[in-house]
Known about the structure:
Blueprint: E1 6-11, H1 16-31, E2 39-45, H2 51-65, H3 72-79, E3 82-86, H4 94-105, E4 110-115, H5 122-131, E5 138-142, H6 150-164, E6 169-171, H7 179-189, H8 192-195, E7 203-211, H9 220-245, H10 254-266, E8 268-269, H11 273-276, E9 277-283, E10 306-313, E11 323-328, E12 335-342, E13 352-358, E14 362-370, E15 378-386, H12 387-390, H13 400-409, H14 419-435, E16 441-445, H15 452-459, H16 468-475
Parallel strand pairs: 1-2, 1-4, 2-3, 4-5, 5-6, 7-11, 9-16
Antiparallel strand pairs: 7-12, 8-10, 9-10, 10-11, 12-13, 13-14, 14-15
The structure holds 6-O-phosphono-beta-D-glucopyranose (BG6).
Amino acid sequence: MRINNHIITIFGGTGDLSFRKLLPAFYNLHAGNKLPESFHIVVVGRQDLTTETYRQRLRPWLKEHSRCPIDDESMELYLSYVSYFKMTFTEDEGYPQLKTYFNSLDENARLLYYFAVSPSFFETITYKLKNHGLTHNAKVIIEKPFGNDLVSAIKINQTLTDILGDDNIYRIDHYIAKEMVQNIYTIRFGNALFKEIWGRKAIKSIQISANETVGVESRGTFYEATGALKDMFPNHLLQILSIVTMEEPKSFDAHHIHHQQEKVLEHLDIKNVQEDVIYGQYTQAINSKSYRDEANVSPDSNVETFVALKLAIDNDRWRDVPIYVRTGKRMHKRSTEVVLEFKEELNQTSNLIIIKIQPDEGVYVRFNIKKPGQKNDTETVFMDFCQSCNYENRLNTPEAYERLLHAAMLEDHTLFASFKQVELSWKLAEKIINGTHDNPLYFYEAFTSGPKESYDLLRNDNNDWIDEEVLGELSS
Ligand code: BG6
């Protein structure tokens, strides 16, 4: 499909996200001939840079973070489309010149704004764009978090919708665009083998884990105001959860997918916030600081870097199936996965389906067979499909941000969140936050599997987190 000419303007273009993800992603799209004939990337920032000094700064990042090969020639060609525009976006002054600049680049181009800034600036920038006649033929991509709570999310959304229209707002959640998250639709709905057993009759529990080995790095200030729950739960984790548990949409377009995700989120709840939410914070380990010792973190901070929760969906498919969710920084292993544990048949080990999202991508299935020979002894075996190993040209698969930027240029909302999803997710997150002020904070040593209390959460229900160690023990 042909894409209209675009001027892409990045607010917050001197931040980490732009260097690490956005500009390399546009480079990859450029290298793959996926950009329109006329396109320009305008990076807006307050710093005293020129286009030349900005390009200079960008070069090493492109070298390091581009997926597609990059040599001097392709680098310079791409950079010739990137310019730096110095202005303070909270002040009116620069906007008239910005308009003149756009007109000099391409008067008829579609304007695509990328707000890679704190949500507290989303409305200010949008008002200023409108007041200076820069919202006609325009659309906007906004980064998570969508506001800092439900009230601010509603307010931001109202302003942006009034000025730009809902169809022109693209709410990014990069987890939606991950290869294996998109694959969940096919795994679930494209296989009779899985489709018919996907529900309470056969499934004992669902577990969703997003464990990271990284700490808070240079984001202490942000993290102190956010914490693991707000950072990962109302967005990434609930996106995965709703795709795993929703009913099959009539068709796989944005409208029908969003509708089914929203329906399941409406029935998602937490029964007992005091008992079903476990907070943790990492302490030091050899060569690694405790959270409280990180830069810009208070030495007596009680902000959680780990959270585990038990949720429930009150509908016919999932009633009485516990859904366990956890995420943590400085965990022993980076791994994002979904585990479906099935009810045990008499004296047998339970079956499992594990959807491995990252860093390994694949599907693991565990089942029981009879051992060869005359006796009826059984054995537990598994099939482990590695998607990332099996596709030779794995490097040719677009990364999440590339997919998202391309989709926004094509005006395809499938990979973006609807506002209703955002709203329902904030509602649940706020119920949890407001109800757990007195929940204890458990400390865990960095590079371990989180506080032991998160294991107790499952053991109280006769369940267990299915970690590698558990898999090893159960299969041997
Ligand atoms: C971001 C969070 O949205 O997602 C980060 O703010 C987190 O704290 C990151 O590290 C994880 O993304 P990925 O793609 O590396 O799993």
